[in-house]
Write a structure and sequence with these properties.
It is found in: Cell membrane. GO terms for molecular function: antiporter activity; xenobiotic transmembrane transporter activity. InterPro entries: MATE_fam (IPR002528), MdtK-like (IPR048279), Membrane_Transporter-Flippase (IPR052031). The longest helix is centred in the first third of the chain and has 37 residues. This protein has 2 domains: about 230 residues, no CATH class; about 210 residues, no CATH class. α2 packs across α12, α6 runs parallel beside α8 and α12 runs antiparallel to α15. It has 18 helices and no strands. The N terminus and C terminus are likely disordered. The protein is an all-alpha fold and about 475 residues long.
Length: about 475
C-alpha cells in the first residue's frame, strides 16, 4: 500500500453496517479461538498430568492475566492513537506511534520477562500456591515469562493492524499460533515420537514455541507485503522513546487495562460468597461462568471493532458517522448476543450437563443461574459498545468508573444482600441490576458528557 492509499483509511468510508460486521467478525473468531485453545490445553494437562498440574497452571494464569490486562490497555491506546492519526491522514504521525510503541514494548517485555524468570518462586510463594503444586508452578511460570516478549510483540502488532483497519491478518496468525499450541502440547508433555517428555514444562514450551513462530512469521509477512506502517531503514529515527506518546499510551491505556482487573476482582468477591453455599454451588457457578464467557464474545468483538472505527472517524472529524457507528454497534450486539442467549436457553440443561456429572444438584443450580443472568449480557453488550466509542476519543476514565460502580458498588453488595436474605437462587438478580445501571450511566455520559472534547495527545506534543 502506498502512502497515498494509506491516506484514505477504509474505516472512514463505505457502508457502516457491512464494514463493522466484517471488521468485528475476525475479532470474534479470534476470541473464540483463544478460549478454545485455553480449554483444550487444560484438557491435555488434566488428562496427562492430573489435578496438581492444573492447580499449577491456574496460579500461573492469574499472573499472566494481570500482565495481559495491563498490556491490553496500552495496546488499545495504541489502536486509538494510530486510528485517529490515520483518520486525519497523518501517516507519519501514525508511524511515530508505531516506532515508539515498538521500542517501549520491547524494553517493557524484557524487564517484565527477566523479573518473572528470576523471581517466579517468590511471586508464587506470595500467592500462597499449594505446596504440592509449587515446583510445577515455578517450572511452568518461568517458561511463560520467557515468552513475554513474543506475547507483548504480538499484541502490539495486532494493535497496529487493527488501528489501521485490518482485523483479518491478526486472526490468521492467531489461528496458526493456537493450532501449533494445541498440537505441540500433548507431544511435549508426554514425549511422543521424537519429542522429549517434559511434563508441565512441555505445555509452557509449546505455548512459547507457537507464539515465537507466529510472531516471527507475522513480521516477515508484513514486510514482504510492504505494509504501509512498517518501519523501514528510512524510518529508523522513529525507533525512539517519544515520552509524550508513551505518556499517552500509559495514561490512557492503564485505565482500559484496569477495567479487566475490576471485572476479575468482582468475580473473586462473588466466588467468595458462592463458595459459602458448598461445592455444588461453586461448580454450578464455574460452569455458568464458562458459558457466559462465550455469550460475552460478540459484545467484546463489536466493542473492539467500534473503538477502531470510531477512532479513525474522530481523527477525520466525521462525528455524524461516529454516532451511526455507535448505534449500529449497539443494534448488532442486541441481535447477535440475543440470538446466542435464545439458543442457550433452548438447550440450557444440555449445555450445563456438558461440564457436570448427572448426579447431584449442580446441574439444576447452573440452569437457574443461566436463566436469570444470560439475558442481562445484552445490557452488558450495550455498555461495552458505547464505552468502546467513548474510549476512542481518549475519554477512558468514566467507563472505568462506571465499571467500578456497577460491579463493586452495585453487583457485589446486592448479591450479598439478596443471598443472605433470600438464599442462593436470588443472588443472580444482581447481574441484570448492575448491567442495567452500567448501560444507563454510559448512555447518559455518551449523550450529555464532554467525551468528544477528550484528546489522546496533542498534535504539537507528538511532533
Amino acid at each position: 500500500m502506498s502512502k497515498s492509499q494509506a491516506g484514505k483509511p477504509s474505516l472512514t468510508e463505505g457502508p457502516i453496517a457491512k464494514t463493522l460486521f466484517l471488521f468485528s467478525l475476525p475479532i470474534l473468531l479470534g476470541n473464540v479461538l483463544q478460549s478454545l485453545n485455553g480449554s483444550i490445553n487444560a484438557i491435555w494437562i488434566g488428562k496427562f498430568l492430573g489435578e496438581q498440574a492444573l492447580a499449577a497452571t491456574s496460579n500461573a494464569n492469574i499472573i499472566m492475566f494481570l500482565l495481559i490486562s495491563g498490556i491490553f490497555g496500552i495496546a488499545m491506546a495504541a489502536v486509538i492513537l494510530i486510528g485517529q492519526n490515520l483518520g486525519a491522514k497523518k501517516v507519519d504521525e501514525a508511524k511515530k506511534v508505531v516506532g515508539t510503541s515498538a521500542v517501549f514494548f520491547m524494553v517493557l517485555s524484557i524487564i517484565v520477562g527477566c523479573i518473572g524468570v528470576f523471581f517466579s518462586p517468590h511471586i508464587l510463594s506470595w500467592m500462597n500456591t499449594p505446596p504440592d503444586a509449587f515446583e510445577l508452578a515455578v517450572s511452568y511460570t518461568r517458561i511463560m515469562f520467557a515468552g513475554i516478549p513474543f506475547i507483548f510483540g504480538y499484541n502490539l502488532v495486532m494493535a497496529v493492524l487493527r488501528g489501521s483497519g485490518d482485523a483479518k491478518t491478526p486472526f490468521y496468525f492467531l489461528l496458526l499460533s493456537a493450532g501449533l499450541d494445541i498440537i505441540l502440547n500433548p507431544l511435549l508433555i508426554e514425549g511422543m515420537g521424537p519429542f522429549p517428555r517434559m511434563g508441565i514444562s512441555g505445555s509452557a514450551t509449546a505455548t512459547f514455541i507457537s507464539q515465537l513462530v507466529s510472531f516471527v512469521l507475522l513480521i516477515i509477512y508484513l514486510y514482504r507485503k510492504k505494509y504501509f506502517l512498517r518501519i523501514t531503514k528510512d524510518d529508523f529515527h522513529m525507533l525512539t522513546l517519544n515520552w509524550t506518546i508513551i505518556r499517552s499510551l500509559v495514561q490512557k491505556g492503564l485505565p482500559m487495562g484496569l477495567n479487566m482487573v475490576v471485572v476479575s476482582v468482582s468475580n473473586l468477591v462473588l466466588i467468595h460468597l458462592v463458595n459459602s453455599y458448598g461445592s455444588e454451588a461453586s461448580a454450578a457457578f464455574g460452569v455458568a461462568n464458562q458459558i457466559s464467557s462465550y455469550v460475552q464474545m460478540p459484545a467484546m468483538a463489536i466493542g473492539g471493532a467500534v473503538t477502531s472505527m470510531a477512532a479513525q472517524n474522530i481523527g477525520a472529524g466525521n462525528w455524524h458517522r461516529v454516532n451511526r457507528i455507535t448505534w449500529i454497534g449497539v443494534a448488532f450486539n442486541i441481535v447477535l448476543t440475543g440470538l446466542l442467549v435464545i439458543c442457550i436457553h433452548f438447550f440450557n440443561r444440555e449445555a450445563v450437563s456438558l461440564f457436570l456429572p448427572p448426579e447431584g444438584k449442580a446441574i439444576d443450580l447452573g440452569v437457574h443461574i443461566n436463566n436469570v443472568t444470560l439475558w442481562s449480557f445484552i445490557l452488558f453488550g450495550i455498555f461495552n459498545v458505547v464505552a468502546g466509542v467513548v474510549r476512542s476519543s481518549g475519554a477512558v476514565i468514566v467507563p472505568l468508573v462506571v465499571s467500578f460502580i456497577a460491579l463493586l458498588f452495585v453487583r457485589n453488595p446486592v448479591a450479598y444482600l439478596l443471598g443472605y436474605n433470600y438464599g442462593f437462587d436470588s443472588i443472580w438478580w444482581s447481574f441484570p441490576i448492575s448491567f442495567f445501571i452500567a448501560a444507563t450511566l454510559n448512555i447518559l455520559y455518551y449523550r450529555f458528557g464532554n467525551w468528544k472534547k477528550a484528546r489522546m495527545v496533542s498534535a504539537k506534543a507528538a511532533s
